[in-house]
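Class, study these two lines:
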Amino acid sequence: MRLRLDTGSRSKTYTPTMTLKGNNSTLTMAGLEVELVHIPGETDDQMGMYIPSKKTFLCGDNLYKAFPNLYAIRGVPNRDLLQWVRSIDLIRSYKPEYLVPSHTRPLEGADYIEGILRDYRDAIQYVHDQTVRLLNRGFHLDDIVDKVQLPKIFQKHAFLEQLYGTVEWSVRGTYNGYLGWFNGDVHQLSPVNHRRRAKGIVQLAGGVDRVMSEAKSALASGDPKWALELSSHVFLLQPKFAIEVRAMALKELASQQTSSNGRNYFLTMALEDAKMVTNKPSPAQMQGFLTKMTISSILKSMSTKFKGDEYENEDMKVLYKFTDIKECYMSHVRNGIMDVYQVSFVDDTDEADVTITTTEQTFKEILANIRSPTKAMLFGELSIDAKGSGMATMKAKRYFDMFDKMEDTIHQHDEV
């Protein structure tokens, strides 16, 4: 089996026709009066909709028939659990007779809906409050994870089964949201590099064979977490000796998950280790992704792709001129950073070392590897001019060599 991200689909961008201010707005849509309600929870910008004539509330992702994803393992900013609770309480205040989540089936009956919403918000608050209580008492994060479990009344609740989010991830996310990465354990304040740790543990245990023997024993005795930890140390150093046992541990852990997110993550990592899945987007996907972004946001995002450690002594200014949208941006590389700012759309400037003139579409297609810069220049869709002596294209190439490739920033394996 080989999985790929390339579906050949193209994304489209739709510009909003209406912007809203405040937490509530009433308007008429297709002859139906609706109230738009700001209900931050799974996302800060989440919007609900109440239809008074139908006594129906569309609650977005603030409720679905599973324990909520209070922390997303794909990586997101901290989700405010108490804000989520307040939003559910706001929904309760409308006393809807019909509740329509964005996922799973609609709910019917005011009393039934009230009971579900109350239990859902109580479970979220419980995880929050007990995590904070134990961290304030000085418990280690791992111990808090072991101690915080849903009350028995909720453990078999139809809307609180850990099929999506999990209590463990929620505890860790809450802890990190309040205290950040440092858990108070002093040896974690300036820890050894993970490769140095792996090397030291393997050496201390007597070498790769001894570690992998113990990992196999752990797997056989029903301890896949320990097997994964041990095999992962070896995997960092000598992958070929650990890949089989690590894959077995990952698959065993996947089989134990109630959360589909957790199961899929464990299985995907096993496939990645075996190079049976690629996580790099195709050119078509990159084009779709870039299509959604403005030129300003693309150029500003390039600052986080600049190889500052390699080019800290470089000082270069590059002017981007986009003739179709009549926008100009200056990119200034200096002191290991790239500063980008918009300038007036002019024909000439003496500031820039290199001037790149093109259109928005051509630039995005070049970034997505849909179009070759050489061909774009040949057809007059791209021009590069340089100040002073030297070939303009060579200066431009040097400039772009200072950045990570767009597709390489999506995700990368650890590299030595």
